[in-house]
Amino acid sequence: MSGPAPARPPLLEVHDLTVNFSGSDGVARAVDGVDLTVEEGETVGLVGESGCGKSVTALAILRLVEPPGHIAHGSSVRLGGRDLLALGAKEIRAVRGNHVALVFQEPLSALNPVLRIGNQIAEAIRAHEAVTRGTARWRAVEMLTAVGIPDAKRRASAYAHQLSGGMRQRVLLAMALACRPQLLLADEPTTALDVTIQAEILELLDGLQRKLGMAVLLITHNLGIVAERTRRVYVMYAGQIVEEAATEQLFAAPAHPYTEGLLAAIPRLDERRDRLQAIPGQVPPATAWPEGCRFHPRCPHAWAKCGTEMPPLLEVTPGHRARCWLVKEPERRKK
Amino acid sequence: MTATPLVEVRDLVTHFTHRVGLFGTRREVVQAVNGVSLDVAARETLGLVGESGCGKTTLGRTILRLVARTSGEVRFDGQDVFALDLAALRRMRRRMQIIFQDPDGSLNPRLSIGRAVREGIEVHRLARGAEADGRVEALLAEVGLPAGSAARYPHEFSGGQRQRACIARALAVEPEFIVCDEPVSALDVSVQAQVLNLLLDLQARRGLSYLFISHDLAVVRHVAPRVAVMYLGRIVEHGPSDGIYQRPLHPYTQALLTAVPVPDPKTKRARVVLAGDPPSPVNPPGGCPFHPRCQHPGKNESCRTVRPELRELAPGHQVACHLADR
Amino acid sequence: MRTRLALAIPLVLAACAKGPAGDAARAPGGTMIIATTGDADVLFPPVTSVTNGINVSDLLFCRLAELKLALNTVDDAGFRPVLARSWEHPDSLTIVFHLDRRAHWQDGAPVTAADVAFTFGVYRDPAVNSPLAPFLAAIDSVTARDSFTVAFRFRRWYPEQLYDATYHMRVLPRHLLDTIPAARLATAPFARAPVGDGPYRFVSWAAGSEIALAADPAWFLGRPGLDRLIWRVTPELATAVSGLLAGEADAMEVIPARGQLERVQQATDVRLVPYPSPFYAAIVFNLRRPPFADRDVRRALAMAVDRETVVRSVFGPFAEVAVGATSPMQWIWSDSISQLPFDTAAAARLLDQRGWRRGGAGGLRSSHGAPLRFTLLVPTSSQVRQQAAVIVQDELRRLGVDMRIQPLEFTVMERRTQTGDFDAALISRTIDPSPASLLQWWSPGAGGNIGRYADTAFGSLAAAAMRARTRAEAAPLWRSALGRLNDEAPAVFLFSPRNNAAISTRFRNVTIRPDSWLATVTEWRVIEARHIARDRGAPRP
Amino acid sequence: MSPWRLAARRFARNRPALTGAVLVAALVLAALLAPLLTADPLAQPDPVRLQNQPPSAAHLLGTDPYSRDILSRTLHGARVSLVVGIGAALLAVTLGAGVGLTAGLAGRRTDQLLMRGVDVALSLPRIVLLLAVFAVWEEAPAAAVVLLIAVTGWFQTSRIVRASVLSLREADFVAAARALGTTGAGIVRRHLLPHIAAPVIVSASLDVGNIILLEAGLSYLGLGVRPPTPTWGNMIMDGKDVLFSAPWVALAPGLALVLTVVAFNLAGDGLRDALDPRAAA
Amino acid sequence: MLRFAARRLAFAVVSVAAVVFITFLLVHAAPGEPMLGTPERALASPETMARQRTLFGLDRPLPEQFLRYARNLARGELGESFVLHRPVAAVLAEAVPNTLLLGGTALVASLLLGLAIGVVQAARHHSRTDTLLSAATLVLYSVPVFWLGLVLLLVFGERLHWLPVSGMTSAGLEDRLSSLGRAVDVARHLVLPAASLALVQAAAFARFQRSALVESLDAEYIRAARAKGLTERAVLLKHALRGALAPTLTLAGLSVPYFLAGSVLVESIFGWPGLGRVAYDAIFARDYNVITATALVSGVLVAAGNLLADVAVAIADPRVRLDQ
A111: which chain E residues are within 8 Å (Cβ-Cβ)? Predict the structure, then answer.
């Protein structure tokens, strides 16, 4: 689904983002030339399997990639037109947690075990706003209440290990949203949770997003969540965006064989499949991406060109692009 | 229920004591499995679903006597597993195996894949020398690992391949029954399908029985014609998958099913959202274990005080709920 | 510390010197910090056994009379009066002392004859278990004739009666001690904070750290020259010397290690004051064991040891080769005493004659298949003795003798030598100013005769010397006895170190009596121009 | 590639660790060859004139107060230090591993008993015990020093081993082995020992340095291995009195001591990094 | 909490009792006997020694001696020193505070210094500063404490005259100083011995702290803290250090034996009149009651250290606090 071009620049505009990790086995290009945009208030999915680079992408947006990883020259991340990669240390800190916030996958490890949760929220507030300790604490309690934690005042002085998994994830949300960011990067926010809790958290996130009017980049491997919660989606494979489309479009007519494969590979609750269509082979390691199209060794349709030339993102329909030569040569699709 | 069950579990209870607090000054009893009965027939797969902490993993391990039971009984092919002496137990273990969730942790990183697979062959003296090598090679090929894998070590394989190796290790002793404890939940979507297909193929080829434990309802539906739903150490619903998935009778099952996101943007479903977290198995609530979270409009006093037993509401479809009706 | 070669000045008295020169009494006093490697044990003279305990209590308590610097133990002229104004010999078994009526305890009470009689009782009381009691065995009784006259009655006549009557005992204040049971005396508070009659008063004692004394301005023989004496315990010798060189301390009784001596030699503010030491070191053979029962083997071993090399190597210029079982402190010391020569050829011949021939592995000597091999016990507490042993070992090896060194902890070695469980031991003997102490170690049946040496010739020479009326008569007899001992070689007498006190050049008038280095400290003075902070000012309240 | 070979490769790539290992190897070699390379460490060519000589062609590191060759004594001292350090470390970890394994595998009661015992042992003031024992030991041969240091030094290892056995017992691959019917002994041999080996090796290698320091301290106090057998501790003591006039006497053994301990610590750190199970995954 | 405290206490009592028992056996099984005088002056005759044995009851069978000792101990009596002729309690009462002052100062100093170095290294980890500090702490950690003590003494005491070399106070000046002056004087005397002990242990703490911090800097919550926009300083000091503090505090509590061992050497070198000296002298003089009592005190100190470690961890890490 692609509406008319927005009058203002998109909220987030990532261009040619490349992140390298240098290790003893050579340089791993974990994220390779990623382009993506998020409009204000929009929920965008970033989907892919482990090791595809989706988490690194999120970290790179806030320049949180740590050595031995580094963001390559030529990448750009613009937030409301401002290039985050060009900011000084102090300015980027002013963005983190304030304009753009991050929610992590493992709420237990993302919360400092030795600090009270109320404190951890309050310090996020105090990092960006000149408020007193007392005010910050009061606002922390308010945030905890907002994310549905009962008896928030008392819970504020609890430690992470004293809370259940769902509660911890709520705390993380409260921490991320404490400064009312314009954009939330939610990295697998519910993967560690049971389905019933996952549903609660996603409902909560929906509600908060509407209330705060923020945009969400929802990073996940779960196609179900993507289908239910996002308007647009990017599919990542081996460090690259391989497909980009409106969500309905993607599920209705996937253009990239990898996307297709994923959809065919998952067992469905709503229908009984006799046999799953598995994608053969393994995700290659980041140090040894294949030549040409990175999916070609696992692709049922691949032909010689796929092994030598890397396809660019090709437009399938307006707003729907796929990194596959099949877009140009659909006749090569095998039945 | 199917005739002549291979595995019969009756009123199985497994409690753990563990120490908590600084220096373990306090004891806690975790009521992991709290009176479970179920059967698995030969060549059949029974799916067991439940959320983390519900006791499904403990149940699987207790059946294999990897964990001591507190009471109740497990019969395998008519023999009481807990009555066996150690030698007999070892013989019995040839016939029942287990596959774990985490392929990293279930392979000894210091043993090559070949030696890991060979371990069972050697323990039960099924073959020796070159014959054993041949068997290992064949098993590895059967689970789809490339030639030459035997000499390699777990860290040289991907998660999916490691899980294949685990399957090969379990198959090495030619078991009849395998407890599959979340065998695919640590795997990527694309690989998950490979392993599920492999398990189904093996079952067809070797006539295996599975107890398939998972938190993923979609996966269970895919592999198991019969499903048991576990909550806080008890089975709350049990029956043919089609029945359970299309017409869940227990409020918990209903909530579970509606919570699972469906990868289809066009389906919009009404969702039963549960309040709060599952209670701790250290201190399970009285009455119906689910009652504190239950959203059933008819919730009443007996839910709080009387524990519902499994009732058969449709052929083969049992549910432990006072309020459920067909 | 094991390097502490403790000096062991036995039982001598200090300070009771004659009255001060008039001008010194008015001169400002000053403070002397004495660095030491060991603390005192207890300040109760009958049981005090540690060098510093003795040094300190020597300044707190007086003797009846005091040896003069020459340490002539035989003649009455060798003594000067202290508590006793004078004495007389009414008969050959009695000495009567007349006490100085000016003498008083630091609490004001006079020192009386009853104190002296009481003191004798304490020293002899088995419940006190004074190690000095055996030295008083010849005294039968001590009785007070009146308040200031006391009579010593001896069991037999001998020339050193006055020495025994005065040297071993320090008079104790009866009025402060007679209510305490004898067995509790050593542990009574008095023993750690005594009230004495000497030139110095007790001020404080921080165990393991510091003992402070202050001059008694009212001392009956005149105010001492130094206001305060402070012993500072620094277990590590190198640190003690550092403190001395840094001016933190003023004096050390002795610097036992050559390397440290050399450091002090190079310093400008500290000088070394040499004086004879009261001990000698020797390798004692156990005559109960086979090779050493043979006099010729002993002589051969003695001749094979180049004692000059041992001494120069261990001490450099800071020790003497021992002329025998004595030290230069004793008046019997003389180069004329006959000694075995260092003669390896003669030693080899002697061993060959006695059937110990070379031929074993490594040129080892053996007789009837038994190698000439023995073990030398050396205490781990003495680095110089260990060092000497190593050199002797090397020398004997060249002769074909395998001497093994067994370093033992001091108390363990003591046990072994006492029970005769040893081949040879490198011992050190602390000696009194009196040559009579020779018998303590070398007469048959004496507790100190660990090697079981028994020789009638030596015995009769020593006995004759003991009976000699004057020092002039006694000296040649003692020297012959020592010569006989050398000739018999029950031991190899290695060295007698020369002690070197280190004393700040701030002090003048420094003299040292070898058996008790602070005996004349009442005469010492600080040069006025060189007063420093600790010499000035009064204590703050 | 097997995890051991991987670890070896990681170790070989770690420059400081490799330096440490090379140093250790050189030390061991020098100590082994000491009798061939150098003069008799006890020989005193001329205890009067050749005392405390500065380094020269004849005596590369000079001579000590007995005119003995310091190079020779330092190398021979290495024998004592290495024998004591390595010997005691090996013995201690063996004891510790044995007790830890027993506690980890035995029933709750044995485990409690052993571990409470270890807790008590850990609150023993080791130095006081060692002082007391060495002071009473008439002669302390190197073997006795090894034994004593080992006997008072295994407690921590036993805790580490026990903890690692307890966690391994919960590991899925052990459960899998049990499910396969592998016997207890087989599980210990195939699955537990190889895993315990890594922390034990690391703890042993890091212990060596500490034990060498401990032995030197005891020697310095005149305990431990006794003179004239050269040990670095008693060599430093020999040189203490001439520290200003002949600094080389104490310097050589002091530097040798520091170098050795540094080498073992480097190698130990390297081993720890190389064998770290997190890195091995 | 009370039950826990009681258990810990009971446990400490058992530990200390074991220490006493083992030490008692060891020293009495030792050859040699209590010594009168210094090694060089064998003044006491065999008869005197024999009488002394009877007086001290050393001629009784060992079990009887132990029972008597244990009975006295139960009444809080530590007996009498054979050599010093005074109650052991008095000997310890003088020595223990000095050792506590020295060891306590060294412990606190090493902890602070170690933490500081560790934090600096972790903040700049893999930089040149880090490498240099790593090398420095490694070498320092490998230096024998007595060697370091001698060097410090010679350089700062004797050569440079900056600090006094021996004792706790300036001899002869104590009573000339105001109480503040006295405190300063003691502090000056404390510097070198405390530094000798502290530097080596600071290196140990720094090495430990660095790796704990570097490890905790890898934690997800550190990334979360950065993502909140906190400064590096806050991330390091508030988040990483808090988490990494507990193990270091444990190590600090468990380092009591190190300080005891070090004090034997350092107290000798610097003439510090403490427990280490007392123990050392007593062992060589076979002063049985003093040896056993020093072992007892050391045992208590070690047990106290262990307890402190537990308490410190409980304070630093809420995860190990007793659940409410």
Answer: 221, 224
Comparing CA positions, the residue from B55, B118, B62 lying closest to residue D177 is: B118
Measured in angstroms, the CA of B179 and the nearest CA of chain D are apart by 11
Q: Specify the pLDDT at position C235.
A: 83
Cβ neighbours of D38 (radius 10 Å): 18
Q: What structural domains does chain C harbor?
A: 20-60+198-275+500-534 (3.40.190.10), 65-177 (3.90.76.10), 279-497 (3.10.105.10)
Q: Spell out the domains of chain B, with CATH numbers in brackets.
A: 7-95+175-247 (3.40.50.300)
The total domain count for chain D is 1
Neighbours of A4 (CB within 10 A): 5
Q: Which domains does chain E have, with CATH numbers?
A: 2-322 (1.10.3720.10)
**Cβ–Cβ contacts within 10 Å for residue C446, how many?**
14
CATH no. for residue D134?
1.10.3720.10
Token pair for B228: 């048991």
The CA-atom distances, in angstroms, between C385 and each of C426, D45, D48, E303 are: 7, 19, 16, 41
Dump pLDDT digits (tens) for E290-305: 888 888 888 888 888 8
Cα gap B76→B39, rounded to integer Å? 10
The token duo for A216 is 């969400």
E322 touches chain B (CB under 8 A): yes
Higher pLDDT, C97 or D76: C97
pLDDT digits (tens, 9 = 90+) for D25-65: 888 888 787 777 776 676 666 666 667 777 777 777 777 77
Give the per-residue pLDDT at C10. Answer: 32
Helices (H) and strands (E) in chain E, counts: 13, 0
* Interchain contact, C313 vs D135, CB within 8 Å: no
Contact: chain E with chain B (3+ CB pairs below 8 Å): yes
The minimum CA-CA distance between D265 and chain B, rounded to whole Å, is: 26
> Residue E79 — very low, low, confident or very high, per pLDDT cuts 50/70/90?
confident
Strands C210-215, A183-187: pairing is unpaired
Distance CA A227, CA A262 (A): 13
Q: Using only the alpha carbons of chain D, give its radius of gyration.
A: 22
Helices and strands: H and E segment counts in chain D: 13, 0
pLDDT (0 to 100) of residue C157? 86
Neighbours of chain B (3+ CB pairs under 8 A): A, D, E
State ipTM. Answer: 0.78
Cα–chain center distance at C234: 21
Query: Which residue, A320, A325, A317, is CA-closest to A247?
Result: A320
Pair type for strands A240-246 and A320-322: antiparallel
CA distance E195 to E189: 11
pLDDT tier for residue C362 given thresholds of 50, 70 and 90: low
- Residue E210 half-sphere exposure toward CB, CA atoms < 13 A: 23
Average pLDDT, chain D: 79
Task: Give the minimum alpha-carbon distance from C356 to chain E in angstroms, rounded to a whole number.
Answer: 35
Dist CA A259 CA B14 (whole Å): 44
The pTM assigned to this predicted structure is 0.81
Under 8 Å CB pairs connecting chains A and B tally to: 130
pLDDT tier at C361, thresholds 50, 70, 90: low
Full residue range of the structural domain in which residue D108 is found: 3-280
| DSSP structural state of residue B178 | E
Q: How far is CA B121 from CA B65, B104, B110, B133, E184, in A?
A: 20, 22, 19, 10, 77
Q: Do B20 and E3 touch (CB under 8 A)?
A: no
Q: Chain E: residue nearest A97 by CA?
A: E228
> Which two three-digit tokens encode residue B39?
């059967």
Chain E residues within an 8 Å CB radius of A64 = 223, 226-227
Cβ-based contacts of E153 with chain C (< 8 Å) = 238-239, 242
User: How many residues in total does chain D contain?
Assistant: 281
Which residue on chain B is closest to D180 by alpha carbon? B120
Question: Tokens 């044990």 sit at which residue?
Answer: C41
